[in-house]
Amino acid sequence: MPTLIKHDKIMEDDWAIVEVEAPADGIRRIVPLEAWLPESGDGLLLQGECEPDARYCVAPLIAINFLVFSDGRGLSLAVLLRSRFDFTGELRAVGDVHPDLLYYLNRCGFDSYLMPDERSAQTALSTLAPYTDYYQASVLEPNPAHRRTRRFA
Amino acid sequence: MYRYDSFDQKFVDERVVHYRAQTERYLAGELPEDEFLQLRLRNGLYIQRLAPMLRVAVPYGILDSRQLRTLAHIARHYDRGYGHLSTRQNVQFNWPELAEVPDILQDLAEVQMHAIQTSGSCIRNITTDQFAGVSEDESVDPRPYCELIRQWSTSHPEFDWLPRKFKIAVTGASVDRAAVDVHDIGLVVFRTDSDEIQFDVKVGGGLGRTPVIGQMIRRGLPVRHLLTYLEAILRVYNRYGRRDNKYKARIKILVRAMTADGFRDKVDAEWAHLEGSPSTLTDEDLARMQAHFQPYPYDSQPASIDTLGSQRLEECAFDAWVRHNVAPHKQPGYAIVTLSTKLTGVPPGDVSDVQMDLVADWADRYGFGEIRISHEQNFVLPDVRFEQLFELWQQATSAQLGANNVGLLSDMICCPGGDYCSLANAKSIPLAEAIQRKFDSYDYQHDLGPLDLNISGCMNACGHHHVGHIGILGVDKKGAEFYQVSLGGHAGNGASLGQIIGPSFSRKDVPDTIETILQVYLDLRHEDEPFLLCFRRVGMDPFKERVYANPD
């Protein structure tokens, strides 16, 4: 069963992708772009190859779908939504989200991850932050490492 | 050379822990084969025809004697006593145990080395001129910029899952020894009249199935914008590069589809948002990095090259070695020495653990402990004093590293081919050996002059056959190994792609075919005209005519 990781822990999911399941009572809808209305309060489902747009940023949640985990287009889309269009809502990775890749997704601005099952969610939690710090700037750290920490030989 | 600080060290140490955990999960059956594949590829581990192959990163081809001794130790302890110098200045091991790779990475991390991003669809090892920082014809030392790009591209959150592998090469010299025209991004760094450092940026070059010469998209990019401009290029490629067909996924296909102008416009539009962002390099950033690459304390009262006079007269092999393997150094009294791995009977680029240890010793004794690996798969000792050359030559010769053939026919580039690689259509190592045996005479090779002969076992072109003056490509013809020959390729300044001469040849016919081609050249050349220029002047026809003339 799909399992949600948010704020670095497994959480109950109060959103549902309408294409996948009919939302139960009290569950909010995530709809694809063609069915999404900006004023609806629905979450928006985008594919990795989608062009980002400022209009999307009123959505309370944007889910980016990974057809295969090795398709990096969703990473660039996330970076653009966060850094160029200042999207501040929840940014969720869905689809083929690989537990070993959360440390990339996280630095591109994702803050929740719908893992395919509970086992992969547990794995993801065990390997959330394999590195203490990274060289380059990212959505999380706008400054590269040498600007943030004192580096010496 | 660059030395790790605590930040770099912590990163590679954590990489070992991270990769070890992934390997353990795979071995325990918790990580499926196809998923582990993507993870191990980002750490340089391929599963080859006979065994795994681990590619160790040698950033821009520079290492020190301690690191080379560690590679010798790895060859001895985890492999079968040898390693392979790759055409991307890295070192490959052909027989490691998958389960032992984390231990190898641990040994590497102890000497500031790793295997990060040496394979997979990500930004690969940055390559450069093997004479960087010491050559006479250099305008700007490219090494600080290589290291800045290395750090920027290491585990980049956005660009580690690209449509396909991505190779960046940098040169700062007037002679392009880094083949920047056949890289995904080729950077030429230079100094302007007003003493500003700038880059010319070429994109979309590459070999493989669809060889293309890169196109200039930006002239005179000020150095402070280097990383933000690369970020713009990579973002355009990551978003729009094809992912439906791996043979059409390299950036060259995108550049061609968009045209160079269209691609440049897209990059410029993206860069307009990034210009001046915090990744812009400051004077302090640049000075900090340049400080890692200061010249060594050279002897200010050097010997003259004339000191070699009598030795050169007495030993013609030494004289030939000085002529071919020794390049001018920017510091008077010093020379750059190329130690050729291309000895007949040894696969090009293969070096034993004993040879690695010896080269490390020589680097300490005849230099400042530094070694380079060239993309032509040779070792380079960058700081040898003139008066030490004879002694070094004697030792190199007794260690089978003294071949005086750099730039000549037998100094060929050759991929591991069908003996090792599961992609290859044909073997390349036995063919290289057959050609070396046929043309074993130094006098003949010397008479031929500069000649690049490159062999790839398949169209993925790891042996750079498209840019060999003579290129040989292994092809599969109804299950049999055949070889296609091309002429007129060139990797340096004014790069060009070879043209196929005609129908392919069986392995046993290739050496005779090469002999015919060389005879045509010797018959047609003007005085001192090198093969490449002769070919460009006379064209393919005379070669084709003689090669396919049927004696029956």
Describe the structure.
The complex is a heterodimer of chains A (153) and B (552). Chain A is of the alpha/beta class and 153 residues long. Chain A has four helices and eight strands, in the order ββββββαβαβαα. An eight-stranded mixed beta sheet of chain A has the order 2-1-8-7-6-5-4-3. In chain A, strand 1 and strand 2 form a beta hairpin. Chain A starts with a strand and ends in a 5-residue tail after the last helix. Chain B is of the alpha+beta class. Chain B has four domains: 77 residues, no CATH class; 164 residues, Sulfite Reductase Hemoprotein, domain 1; 94 residues, Sulfite Reductase Hemoprotein, domain 2; 135 residues, Sulfite Reductase Hemoprotein, domain 1 (2-Layer Sandwich), CATH 3.30.413. Chain B is 36% helix and 17% strand. In chain B, the strands form four sheets. In chain B, strands 16, 17, 18, 19, 20 and 21 form a six-stranded mixed beta sheet that branches. A five-stranded antiparallel beta sheet of chain B has the order 1-2-5-4-13. In chain B, strands 3-14-15-12-11 form a five-stranded antiparallel beta sheet. In chain B, strand 6, helix 5 and strand 7 form a beta-alpha-beta unit. In chain B, helix 6 crosses helix 8. Chains A and B meet through helix 1, helix 2 and helix 4 of A and helix 1, helix 2, helix 5 and helix 6 of B.
Based on the model shown, name its key terms:
heterodimer; A: 153 residues; alpha/beta; eight-stranded mixed sheet; B: Sulfite Reductase Hemoprotein, domain 1; Sulfite Reductase Hemoprotein, domain 2; 4 domains; five-stranded antiparallel sheet; globular
